[in-house]
């Protein structure tokens, strides 16, 4: 029997892989690097990921919310941090006081930041986001001149410094998609509006992971890299081999193994029935731990050196795998996904099996799993 894993189920994160990936991406892009650690570092741990990225030379850290940015500060991060997702009435003063760059999408949001500056007792650092075609957050082009004018007025009276102008690509994982050219052209128009008005931002940024890798013209002064920092492919089928290393491995301990006779069915709804005599193993994680229910009957795990198919529906706390007649015994290691170097499935394999993207696989996994860090 193989040695027992450290926990019933765990996420193992290789910080050495994250440092390697950030360094490799910095070399490739040749501009300032923002490592994005929102959503608890894409499931890898926000504080630990940010620290590893800083050690590898990341100039900026990016998060979605003020709460995430404040948590980084509480964890000891003192470098440049940008956050970008707020709602009306949210407390910008806490972010300003913590020396965090905040993002404005509208004149109304700039007014809220202005009020927060009075509370914080210090000028803000503000970045302006323009919507170039994602049709999500950001100022539409018809309101952009008003946002720029209000931002310039606030800079001139000392309320804030405008440190950046940015936008976000909608289809960078499809390099031939016409939206990429259209968005970049519109971003350049927005930059010209800001420059003509007199704004001189510190950084201009458009590219996410796929854009940073596949579209050199979109790199500008800074690239925002999330998924690729964790060693995952942001544009499957299009990304060249950059030598990135997936940082996350998800493991569990096999809870039980037993024979299964031909004709016996497995799990809720009996969606799978054994055609021949076989053996099965019980893996003690389920959709409450972020294992996609869509993986039922399609995804694989590694047990005893072989990939084993999930049989039947993934349950809240557990799922069953077909051991193909082998009987390795309870206590064996199960690898749901990892970097693939030992024959195990990858997060991308799970994404394809579940009809989703690797972003969702790594950010949703967790639940009752513990997290452990290694440095390889």
Automatic annotation (TrEMBL):
Pathway annotation from the record: Amino-acid biosynthesis; D-alanine biosynthesis; D-alanine from L-alanine: step 1/1
Catalytic activity: L-alanine = D-alanine
Keyword Isomerase recorded: yes
Domain Alanine racemase C-terminal: 247-374
PTM sites of type N6-(pyridoxal phosphate)lysine: 38
Active-site residue list: 38 (proton acceptor), 268 (proton acceptor)
Domain of life: Bacteria
Gene3D superfamilies the record matches: Alanine racemase, Lyase, Ornithine Decarboxylase, Chain A, domain 1
Catalytic activity, EC: 5.1.1.1
Xref: NCBIfam families: alr (TIGR00492)
HAMAP family in the cross-refs: Ala_racemase
Family: Belongs to the alanine racemase family.
Record protein name field: Alanine racemase
Native source organism of the sequence: Nocardioides conyzicola
Gene, per the UniProt record: alr_1
């Amino acid at each position: 029997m193989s040695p027992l894993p450290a926990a019933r189920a765990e996420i193992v994160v290789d910080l050495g892989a994250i440092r390697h990936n950030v360094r490799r991406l910095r070399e490739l892009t040749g501009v300032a690097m923002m490592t994005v650690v929102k959503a608890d570092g894409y499931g890898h741990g926000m504080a630990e990921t940010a620290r590893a990225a800083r050690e590898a030379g990341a100039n900026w850290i990016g998060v979605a919310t003020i709460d995430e940015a404040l948590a980084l500060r509480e964890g000891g991060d003192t470098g440049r941090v940008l956050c970008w997702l707020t709602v009306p009435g949210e407390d910008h003063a806490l972010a300003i006081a913590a020396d965090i760059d905040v993002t404005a999408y509208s004149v109304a949001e700039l007014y809220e930041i202005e009020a927060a500056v009075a509370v914080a007792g210090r000028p803000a650092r503000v970045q302006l986001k323009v919507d170039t075609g994602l049709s999500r957050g950001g100022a539409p082009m018809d309101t952009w001149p008003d946002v720029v004018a209000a931002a310039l007025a606030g800079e001139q009276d000392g309320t804030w410094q405008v440190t950046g102008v940015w936008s976000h690509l909608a289809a960078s994982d499809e390099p031939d998609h016409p939206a990429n050219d259209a968005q970049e052209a519109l971003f350049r128009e927005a930059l010209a509006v800001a420059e003509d008005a007199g704004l001189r931002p510190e950084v201009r940024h458009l590219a996410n992971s796929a854009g940073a890798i596949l579209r050199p013209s979109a790199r500008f002064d800074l690239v925002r890299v999330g998924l690729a920092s964790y060693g995952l492919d942001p544009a499957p089928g299009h990304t060249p081999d950059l030598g990135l290393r997936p940082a996350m491995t998800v493991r569990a301990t096999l809870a039980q193994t037993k024979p299964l006779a031909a004709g016996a069915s497995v799990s809720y709804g009996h969606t799978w029935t054994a055609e021949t005599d076989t053996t099965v193993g019980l893996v003690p994680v389920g959709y409450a731990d972020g294992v996609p229910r869509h993986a039922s009957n399609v995804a694989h795990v590694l047990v005893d050196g072989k990939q084993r198919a999930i049989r039947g529906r993934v349950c809240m706390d557990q799922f069953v795998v077909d051991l193909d007649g082998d009987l390795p015994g309870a206590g064996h290691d199960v690898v749901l996904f990892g970097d693939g170097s030992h024959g195990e499935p990858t997060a991308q394999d799970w994404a394809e099996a579940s009809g989703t993207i690797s972003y969702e696989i790594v950010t949703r996994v967790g639940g009752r799993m513990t997290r452990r860090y290694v440095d390889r």
